[in-house]
Amino acid sequence: MERNTFTTVIGWIAAGLLVSKSVIADSAAADASNLDIELTRLIKAQNISSIYSDKGQSTEKVALGRALFFDKVLSGSGDIACATCHHPNLHSGDDLSLSIGVGGDGLGYERKLGKARPLIPRNAPEIFNRGASQWRTMFWDGRVEIAADGHRISPADEKLPADKLENIVAMQAMFPVTSRHEMRGRKGDLDVSGQPNTLAAIGDTDFEEIWERVMGRVLAIPEYVALFKQAYPELATDELHYAHAANALAAFQTKSFTFEDSPWDRYLRGEQAALPEAAKQGAILFYGSAGCSSCHSGALMTDQKFYNLLVPQIGPGHRDSSGFDIGRARVTDQKKDAFAFRTPPLRNVAITGPWMHNGSYMSLEAVIEHHAKPLEMLQAYDASQLDPSVKKTFRLNTSTILVMSQTFSPEINVVPELNSQETEQLIAFLESLTSPSTQDLSYLVPQTVPSGLPVDR
């Protein structure tokens, strides 16, 4: 009798455990379903869609663009290429707070500043998904823009060969070769062979001559003549303009750095299991109470507008702005735009630090905290996190804070302070924006380039 009673009790316990497991499983499933329901509601309300870029680029144009992207022949002294600051092995950036331009040596963390050379005032932005049709601005200050009426705006004004440029990525590619600190060099520089840097001798606003000289040195190389002929068979060599090189650079970047397979993009296409639960909770925060999507909106996750977030002032700034980097105001010449920078896109954001327009933060946690309390974070900024060459450029005093605060963007006030769990969830969502295809892009790096100059790798 006792044995039968014991067996019965054991049976009740086992049955109870099975019921409990079933209830827990049902509860978890219900929680997951509720997350998806709420996230789907937010996605529809804000008209969010997966990113899409037309990767259907001419094979010949992509091949030409690849060669140009890695070839230092485009620079005045032959010592820096587009890839130096936007390298595939460094997630299309350079892993530095502020880039090191002409006269530098090395790649990424190991790159060294040239003697008596300044740092580039801003962080090198990643170049993922720039072929998407929604793009209408380029650079942190938006100095390259396609206006709503189609008018093309750039530092070159009417000198820009707009009729020859295929898209805004090509427009952007026209200007690094004209920048003294980025690629062109300063007057009196010698190139890597000890000869005078002829590009550096040209005036800063003589864009047409700069582009003509760059094309002249490129087309002096027989392999490039052949590559241009394959990419533009309808044009004679003497009809080629640097704009055609820019179009090829744009084709290479669009074809090679476009990725639409992040967990978030898969979720947007209907794969609910692609996104972990923590990332779903983070997405609900992002598109809901955290207010992130008020600026990081749409398929690009940027409204392409400009805001002053009181980001710490580091870097050499600009001589005509008392050593400050006043951002958008350098383009518009309007005080209200001082210290404002474009909202960055967020695809692959977790792998493209340091963050902010000047790489002032080394973690996403710090970036999130700065958005919640910008003035407090500015006042408490710890410059010890910076590389010594950058640290010595940090400026923080009462007058700096007062000047910057005059044009603070009130839009940032929508961001609340988050607790540690909410921050972790938000970061889980930001990590879900990383494409697995970006893990190894070394296949994009060529062994050699037509000029014979060394390839950064």
From TrEMBL:
Record carries keyword DNA damage: no
Key words, A-Z: Heme, Iron, Metal-binding, Oxidoreductase, Peroxidase, Signal
Domain Cytochrome c: 277-434
Annotated GO CC locations: cell envelope
Molecular function in Gene Ontology: cytochrome-c peroxidase activity; electron transfer activity; heme binding; metal ion binding
Major subcellular location class: other
Gene3D superfamilies: Cytochrome c-like domain
InterPro entries xref list: Cyt_c-like_dom, Cyt_c-like_dom_sf, Cytochrome_c_Peroxidase/MauG, Di-haem_cyt_c_peroxidsae
UniProt-annotated location(s): Cell envelope
Protein known as: Di-heme cytochrome c peroxidase
Species classification: Bacteria, Pseudomonadati, Pseudomonadota, Gammaproteobacteria, Oceanospirillales
